[in-house]
Amino acid sequence: MPTNIPTDLLRAFVTVIDLGGYTRAAEALGRTQPAISQKLRRLEAIIGQPLLLAEAGQIRLTDAARTLDTLARQMLRINDDIAASFADERLSGWLRVGVPTDFSNAFMLQAIADFAAAHRGVRIEVSSRASRDLRTALAAEELDMIFAIAPEDGMPWLVQSFRVTPFWAISAAVQLDPAAPVPLLRHPDPCEYADRMRSALRDAGRPWRTLLVCNDVEGLVAAVRAGLGVTALTPATLAAGLRRADVGDGLPPLAPLRIGLFYKHARLSRAGHGLAQSLLARLI
Amino acid sequence: MPTNIPTDLLRAFVTVIDLGGYTRAAEALGRTQPAISQKLRRLEAIIGQPLLLAEAGQIRLTDAARTLDTLARQMLRINDDIAASFADERLSGWLRVGVPTDFSNAFMLQAIADFAAAHRGVRIEVSSRASRDLRTALAAEELDMIFAIAPEDGMPWLVQSFRVTPFWAISAAVQLDPAAPVPLLRHPDPCEYADRMRSALRDAGRPWRTLLVCNDVEGLVAAVRAGLGVTALTPATLAAGLRRADVGDGLPPLAPLRIGLFYKHARLSRAGHGLAQSLLARLI
DNA sequence: ATCATTGCATAATGGATTCTTATGCCATGC
DNA sequence: GCATGGCATAAGAATCCATTATGCAATGAT
Question: Membrane-spanning residues where (chains A, B) (predicted)?
Fold first, then answer.
């Protein structure tokens, strides 16, 4: 007989974190402040460890709380999926979505566009920046929902993550000279893909030369297609005229990275949950 | 303010399905039969639709119930993950795990072996069969937990699924003759990979010839390495001496398939949940 | 330094929820 | 025709949970 963790306790937990206080969480959830206090206490009793430390007007998370935070958000996402599956209401609202520059590709935009087409009442504003800027923007509530690279050691507001393995892309018409340094085309630093290309080459003892630094993926793809050099792409960004390159071309495999969906449950509208569900269904 | 779906209602729901009756579910959950009845009624009130129809000693699921079943199991899996995260107990027991023949590769076995090494009290018996046989075995409770190909139209006991995109593998030393029929190495029918290879070739108007039919992946890989022909592999099964082949080699892309983890919540021990969690963390 | 303010904890009460016991109903099978 | 197994329903009892009222600690302003 497994332990059932009441959903409303988890909801209270993440709401307190999202809104930074018991009193504000109580307002948002339509309860009084002592009710939230008791919910947190009951949750701590179930978990068997303290979770939130009230400290100088700030909420501090224990280690257990950080672990629970990620899992609780996953569980609430499914809860909201269930609710949405049977609600059958017209979604509407205004959503500010952030995607990393190196992932703002046709695939993601297509998925968002499809959702927007299916829910005409939802206005979506997509903003494309570096992952770390996206996380700052989510914290500051300038964005409602972001996809960003997820640090392996965890980070607040992570709802779901999935692995993406980048690979080398080269023009279909070109063979790499194994004697010459690898001609690298990449995004400007800081960039997870650039990091992975360099560390893979470094580990393999293969020299390289950066030939082009370009902000958007389309530019890199065009340059690769023109035969200028190689870059790291993902299955979603591999375009016509390009092929994967691998050990056969003298290029070492690239380490996988982890993309995460982040949002604050207490801040996201039903339309936001709908979009999250729709995107994750296509991504996983 | 979103709807919180009480975890215990979902637990009752899947337990009734898993054990095929209210009375048996009541025993398993340590409640009386009317308590389970009422839980189900409350869940139906939240969902807004009838879920289970008692019919001739059998439980029949409505369409809504089938939808809910998958999501409820996902939510309970996370619930049990949370419980396991803070329980910190020695796992022990006996687990019968099923993996599809075309997925019983080193990667999966390694992951299972790692878990077994970390939890010495758990004895694991891995059984490798065709996906459809695995599902029958799960239904008959000859297996506790299976990975199997998930039909797109849903199927009972699906807890989590993820996409796998197969690709063509060819010996690194060989070029395919574009004029000749594609030399196919494959598993015996029924096989999802074989289906995908044939339908991709058929759609592309490319003729093929089956050169070898072999039950296990290792045999196919050896044959591909020897230069006999091509087969469909996944990232986890791609071995040394092999390379991906793609449109550049005259081979059309293969359709992705969906692998699912299936188990009956009411039947799976804590050790089983631990293994599920451990495997999914490495797969997603 | 003092006092008001903000924010969480705690106690006690009332109400709502949910379990149990008791019982009824409807199949199926002998 | 009657017993049996299995779910539904009703009513009482126990539990759970939210509220009001109040206390306490920390912060910040005068």
Answer: none
Helices (H), chain A: 7-19, 22-29, 33-47, 63-87, 106-118, 131-139, 192-204, 217-225, 270-283
State the fold for domain A167-255: D-Maltodextrin-Binding Protein; domain 2 (3.40.190)
Tell me the CB-side half-sphere exposure of residue B256, using CA atoms within 13 A. 13
Strand A92-100 to A121-129 pairing: parallel
B55 CA: distance to closest CA in chain A (Å): 24
**What are A163-193's pLDDT values in tens digits?**
999 999 999 888 999 889 999 999 988 888 9
According to CATH, the superfamily of the domain at B167-254 is Periplasmic binding protein-like II (3.40.190.10)
Q: Which helix (H) or strand (E) holds B163?
A: strand B158-164
| A58 in contact with chain B, both atoms CB, cutoff 8 A | no
Q: Is the pLDDT of residue A136 over 70?
A: yes
Q: What is the pLDDT of residues A214-260, one digit of tens each?
A: 988 888 999 999 999 999 998 878 888 898 888 878 899 999 999 99
- Indicate the pLDDT class of residue A271, thresholds 50, 70 and 90: very high
pLDDT of residue A46 exceeding 80:
yes
pLDDT (tens digit per residue) in B206-218 = 999 999 999 888 8
- The answer to whether residues A262 and A146 touch, using CB atoms and an 8 Å cutoff, is yes
The highest-confidence range among B81-90, B153-162, B199-208, by mean pLDDT, is B199-208
Most B CBs within 10 Å: which of A1, A4, A42, as the mutation test of the B interface?
A4
Q: At a CB cut-off of 8 Å and minimum separation 6, what does B103 contact?
A: B147, B234, B236, B259
How many C-beta atoms surround the C-beta of residue B255 within 10 A?
Answer: 14
Q: Encode B138-160: b = buried (16+ Cβ within 10 Å), e = exposed.
A: beeeebbbbbbbbeeeebbbbbb
A235: CB partners within 8 A, 6+ apart: A164, B165
Is the separation of the CB atoms in B198 and B208 below 8 Å? yes
Torsion of CA B276, B278, B283, B284, to 10 degrees: 90
Fold of A90-161+258-283: D-Maltodextrin-Binding Protein; domain 2 (3.40.190)
Interface contact flag, A74 B71, Cβ < 8 Å: no
Q: Is A152 in CB contact (< 8 Å) with chain B?
A: no
The distance from CA B219 to its chain's CA centroid, rounded to whole angstroms, is 23
Chain-centre distance for alpha carbon A253: 23
CATH hierarchy code of domain B7-81: 1.10.10.10
Query: Best residue in A24, A86, A243 to probe B by mutation, most B CBs within 10 Å?
Result: A86
Q: What is the arithmetic mean of pLDDT over B171-190? A: 91
- Topology of the domain covering B89-163+258-283: D-Maltodextrin-Binding Protein; domain 2 (3.40.190)
What residues does each domain of chain B span?
A: 7-81, 89-163+258-283, 167-254
Whether the per-residue pLDDT at A156 is higher than 90: the answer is no
pLDDT of amino acid B56: 66
Q: How is residue B55 written in tokens?
A: 């019919």
Gyration radius of chain B over CA positions: 22
Interface subset of A 167-226, CB within 8 angstroms of B: 172
